[in-house]
Every structure is written in structure tokens, then in C-alpha cells.
Amino acid sequence: MLQPGLIQLLTASDLADLRIDAIPKLQVGFRPGSFFSSFRSQDGEAKLTFIPQQILLNKDHELFEDGDIHRHLYLQNLSTCPAHDSPTARQCEFRCYISGCSQVFSTVEDYEHHYNTLHRHVCSSCQRSLPSARLLDIHIQEWHDSLFSILAERQDMVANIHAHKRMCTHTHYVAHSGLDLDQSMHTVSHSLFPPPPKYQCLVEGCGSKFRTREQRKDHVIKIHKYPSDFMFDKVKRIKNIKIAKNNMLQKGTSMEVSMSVSEPEGVCEVLSDQPEEEEYMEINHSLEPGILDPASNPINTVELSTDHDTAPILSVTIQPTTNQQRPQHNRERHSYRVPRTVCFGQGSVQGFRGHGRRI
Amino acid sequence: MWRLNAVRHKAGRQGSDLEEFKFKRREHEKELRRARKDSQLVSKRLLLNDDEEEDGTMDTLASDQVLGPCITTTVRDDDSSQQPSREAHQLLIEQPNSIAILVTNLCGPNPQCRLEAARCLHELSHSPHSEVDSLRLRQATPYLITFLSGQSPKFTELCLYTLGNMCPDSENVRDMLLAQGIIPALNNCIQIHRTNLAVVEAVGFTLSQLISANYVTERIIPAVLASGLIPRLLSVLTPDSQFGLGPVIECAWCLHYLACSNVDNGALVAQGTLLHCTSLLVTLGVAVAKGSIEEGIELLIWPLLRCVGNLLLSGPLGALQPQLNDSRLLAALCAFPQAFLQTHPALARESVWVLNNLTDSSVFCSALFYLNLVPALIQLLPFSHGINIMVLRVLGNIAHQGREYCLHLAQAGLLPALCATLKMADTEVVTFSLEVLGQLMASDPQLAEEFVKQSGLPVLEAIQYSNQETIRLRATHLLEHHLLPHCPVRTMP
């Protein structure tokens, strides 16, 4: 139990060398105390306040409780017993300090696994956690890059024009019947727009890029043999959060399950049809410190996944945590949603694909 | 130790008896904790009959009717869990002049009657029944006190334990005992019977009951300090291997109660208390190192640690140094936590508390490094029960001494240990860890680099998102002032 060094020290026979006044005192150039005074915050308050302090404990202090109880058990003839159960030292637990998370772990490894799974590679805009840095980059590019989303919309418009051959959804220019808008100058003007964005293949090392999410999805399914129910680009179902949040708090189940697929349609203010929605590999989490936007406030996290009921391969089942508050800016997106009943042409997809942020 | 021997016998029972015993003990412990919270923690001791004496006395007893019920209650085996019947004690008390009769016997010519009367009074003093209280017994106290200066050890022992059981009952009783001269009597008694360790143990017990009660600081403790009892208590502080630890334990608890009352600790130190207590702690540390941990040794270590811990505040450490000159004290204070961590974590914590009070001086901090004791402290950091907080205080004290101390701490492996404590659930642990870390990094930028190499940066960044302001502010402060140049810059795509 005792370390050998300690044993040696205590059982040494030569007492002369063990006098305190014989031990050389460590010399110091300067005291760190002088540094502390210079490290005050702008408001002049010292942030680090520790100073050495001797502590006097009186008879009734709580630190003395266990010893007193032991003494009185002895006085009352109830103390020693070979197999008595007195409190043993416990190893401290570890806690995740990300606000709103507050999960507790018994080992450092468990904590670190939790942290690396849920709190790394977090998008600073929407607080979604991605499994890897690359997917985070792709996510940011496809969802939070305003240029990308504008280009994507324009591409949709161009696609719609091709599809409808009648009305330009952007300018509402209606071509003459029979006349392919492509051949008109109108289309030419669209082609002067910047090239459409490329959706990258999700598999690292592939490098393929696609014009649309569907194409990417097809590619990943066909070429990389991903299952067809794999979670691809997730639609930002922000409004579902409230409902889902209630579900979660009530059921206490994991996110994927609680985000019942059947609900969104009734709830959704927006409206691309369910099957059209593509899912992304995302997990609940909170902010990754590495790409922390210094201007943003400390986060309160967790966002609910709106994934389908089948668990995606790469996503993580999260234990529901305490009440989360949605970041304010997400709620603002609701107002940009197109109402369900708007129809852009016969047989067309109702509503817009994708949800770029309009800045 | 006679007390522990009795208990060991009980504990030797098998199976359900043992479980029942443990259950009762747990329940009892809960009661004691409740009582302590209400400042009502009081214990009384019952001196058990030696077997051979009992057989002898039965035949020679006087056939006084009043003594009848008293006799029946004394007949019991050494299982003191059997409570004397209410009727017996009540009967005795309700009889008119019963106490007066006992007192008469107490002072009478017949030695056996004296002994039996004393035993009766002793049992009444231990009685849990409320009708039997000390005020009823007060007729007897002047005599009991007088007899403390007598020569008969067994009789004196009974008188002592009777008085000891009466002390905690009320302030009135204590005032009365004080007025009747209990303190000089105890002083005399311990002098006369210094070779009889059973009596010495009884004196220690009675004194500890007197001074551990509530509201004693004004008159009782100054009287004890002035009485000349201290040197006598200190002379007991050498454990007798044959008799056991009983007397030393009682005297040590007396010294603890005196020191923690903080009435005149300078006087205590002047009479050699610190020197004797630290010597005994070193002796116990050596015993622990050799592996000979006697049963009940923690009952002795506890009050000594408390006494020393509090006496360290009685003056500047530099002035106290001559009494603290044995560096093995530091080794002992590091050995106790290692030895008792699993059985008595509170003792481990108090041992580190004493170290905290010692490390306010660079002399002792240097000594900790010289003796290579810091790694042993760092190994205590994973443990809760307030142990890690106390260790962090000690480490903070050391770091505060200067740059070289901080470097030595880092060499001893503190930085990786702090990376772990920064992740702990207890906010106070994290706060102290940040403080210590701050001192380290402020003393030398090299240490900040080292911290980053230990992957400490993400840990601090994570703390920034805590909803606890104390740690958030400190983490931010450290990041901004010491770690900013080391932060990797992530570029957005």
C-alpha cells in the first residue's frame, strides 16, 4: 500500500539528515504573485484569487464529522469489526461541462468518448455535430455558405425552367408555348450566372462532385454501396424541434426514435414532401471549440435530429439531455419557409428543394 | 484494549448475527450523525465488571434492601447491549433517600459496600432513562470528586467514569463540578495513579467529556490550561505496547478539544504540545510504514492530526519550526492517506489538511520536494470526499512560493494530473485546478506550452461553455492570457 520511497524515508535509521533545518531551501528568482496583479481583466477584477491559507477547524466543523462518529462508536462499544462498512474513498466522477449537457461519467475515457462523439466537429451556425472534420466542412459549405445556397437556388430555377419550359420561376417570364426556354435569350441570361455548385461525394477519397443532391445520393448508393435508407442531406426541420423536444422529454428515448417520421408532415410549416427530403449524417451535440466563432455566445446545445426511424450508420444515438433552447437564429428561418399550398407549375415539386439561408 | 477486545468477541459471530450487528451499527451511526448535526453528540461509558470480581462480590454483599435492585442490574454478561431494566433503576431512584443511602455506603467503612455503591452510581450515571439524570445524582458528586485523590485504583476508576458520564448532561452540572473542584482533582488523580494505565485512561475520558461539551470555552478550558494537566497528558503520549492504546487515545482527544477551542493555543505550544504530538505522529507513521497497523490506531491518529493542524495557526510557522524539525512528519502526513485511503478517507483528508497548514511556508515546501513527496500527493487527486480539493490547496500553496517551485511541480507530473481534474464533476475541484494551473502558467511560459502538449487546450475550451460562471471566467482568463499564442487557428472552408 505504501510506496517504497515513503517506507524508506520513515524507517531510515540516520536521523541527523532528516532535520528540516538541514534541508536546503529552494531559491526563487521572483514570486508568481507579482504576475497575478498584472493579469486582471478589463474591469479590474482579479480572476485568479487563490492565496495560501491556513485553515483552523473548530470542534463542530463538518470536516471532522467522520472522525467524531468513529470516536463515539468506539466509546459506545460499536467500533471495530473485521468486515465493517465505513465509507471508502471514491474516485471522483467526471462531467461534461458543455452547457446543457451535464452528463456524468465514472472514468476519463468515458467522458472523452462522449466529448469526442458529441461535441467535436460541431457547426457553429446550427450546432449540429458531424462525425468528421470533412463532413463538417461539407455541411458548412452546403448549408451555411450563402453563395452556395444562392447558386443552388438558381440552379433549381434553371432546372425548373428546363422542366417546365414555360415559366421562369425567378423572373416569372413565361415563354411562348412550344418554345423551349432554353433556346431563348432568357435562358442565355441565366447561363451567364456563375456555374452551379457541386455537391461532393461523402466518401473520403472519392472526389466526385454532382450538380444535385439526388445525383450525389444515387452515386453514393450505387457506387459506394451505401444503403438506400442512409441518412443523407438532412433537411433543416427546425420547427419540428419543439414537437420533438416535447416527445423527447416525455419519452426520454433517443433522438432518432423520438423524431417520429409521421409527425413532420402534420407539423411542418414548410414543405417539401417527406420522401423528397434527404437526410444528413448528423448527431446531436454542441459546439466544437476548434471552429468556434468567437463572436457567438456560449451555446446551449442540442439540436434534435430529424432523422428517419431507421438509424443511420454513422449517426450516434444520443441520450436525451436536459432542456435545450434553440438558438434564436434558427427560429427566424421559419418565416422564410414557403407555404405548403404554393405550387410552381403542374406536376412540379411543391416548394423549393433545399433550404438555403437568405442573408 | 479492553473495549475493543469485547467488541471483537461480538464480531466473531457468524452469519445472520454478524449481519444484524452490522445493521444495528449502521443505524446507530446514522443516529450519531444526526446527533452531531444537532450538536448533541454525547457518549457515556459503562465500565464492565471483571469476571472474577463479580463472583467474589456476590457472596459478601450486605443484604440491604435498597441495594437489592442495584445488584440485580449489575449481574450481566459482557454483552452490554442488554439494557438494565427500567424498573430496576426507576425503583431505585424513586425510593426516598435512595441516593443518600448510596452515598452513605459510598463513604462507609465497608470497602465492598463502597465499591458496590460506586458501581450503582456508575450504572445510574450511564442509564439512558430520563428519570435518572445527573441532578438527582448531584448529592454524590462532591464525594466522588474527593475520592479521586484516593489510592484505590478500581474504586477511583468507577468514580471517574461516573463523573465522566455526568459531564455532558448540562451546563449546570458542569458548573457544579467545576465549582466542586473537579479539575485539580483530576490533576491530582493522574499524578497519583500515573503508573496505573486504566486509571489514566479514565482520567483522560472524564476530562475529554468535560471539555468537549458545548459552552465550555469561557471557564472550563482556561481552568484546564492553567491547572498543570497539560504536561501530565503529554507524558502519557507514549503508547504502552502491553496495555494498549486506550489511555493515549483519551489524552490525545483531550488535547484536540483544547486546541480546537483556540482559547490559548500559544500556551499549549509553550508547554510542548506541538512537539509531543508531532513526535507521536512520526512514531505512528513509522509503525504504519513497517506495516504494523494496530487495531484502533486511527482513533489515535485522528486527534493528533487535528491537534497539530490547529496548533500550526498559533503563531508564524517560522517561530514554530523548532517544534517541527523532524522532516519525517511530512513523510508521515503523506503516508497516512496512502495507508488509510480505503478504510478511513476522512482521515486521509485531515492528514492533507495538516499539510495545507504546513505548506504556507517555503521551508516545508522545499522539504516536500527534497524528500520527493509530491508524487504521492498527486496520486491522491482522483479521490473525492474532499481529498482532491485539499491536495489542490497544498499544490496551490507550493506553486505560490515561486517559479522554481512551479517547475518542480511540473517535473513531478502535475500537468497531466490537472488535465484530468479539470474534467471532474465537482465544480470546486475544477476551480482549484484552474487556479493551480494559472499559477503554473504564470510562472513560466514553458509550462503553458507543456500544458498544450498534454492536450489541455480543448479541456479549457470545453469549460468555457459551462453554465458555472466561476470556472468559465477562469478558463477564459487562462486561455486569453497564457494560451492564446498556442491556440491552433482553424480556417473555415
TrEMBL record, chain B:
Asked if the keyword Coiled coil belongs to this entry, the reply reads yes
Keywords assigned by UniProt, alphabetized: Coiled coil
Membrane spanning stretches: none
Q: Which Gene3D superfamilies match?
A: Leucine-rich Repeat Variant
- Residues annotated as coiled-coil are 18-45
Determine if Coiled coil is one of this entry's keywords.
yes
SUPFAM superfamilies per UniProt: ARM repeat (SSF48371)
* Superkingdom of source: Eukaryota
Alphabetized InterPro entries for the sequence: ARM-like, ARM-type_fold, Armadillo
Q: Which PANTHER family match?
A: TRANSMEMBRANE AND COILED-COIL DOMAIN-CONTAINING PROTEIN 6, TRANSMEMBRANE AND COILED-COIL DOMAIN-CONTAINING PROTEIN 6 TMCO6
- By what name is this protein known? IBB domain-containing protein
Q: Which organism is it from?
A: Oncorhynchus mykiss
Q: Which gene encodes it?
A: tmco6
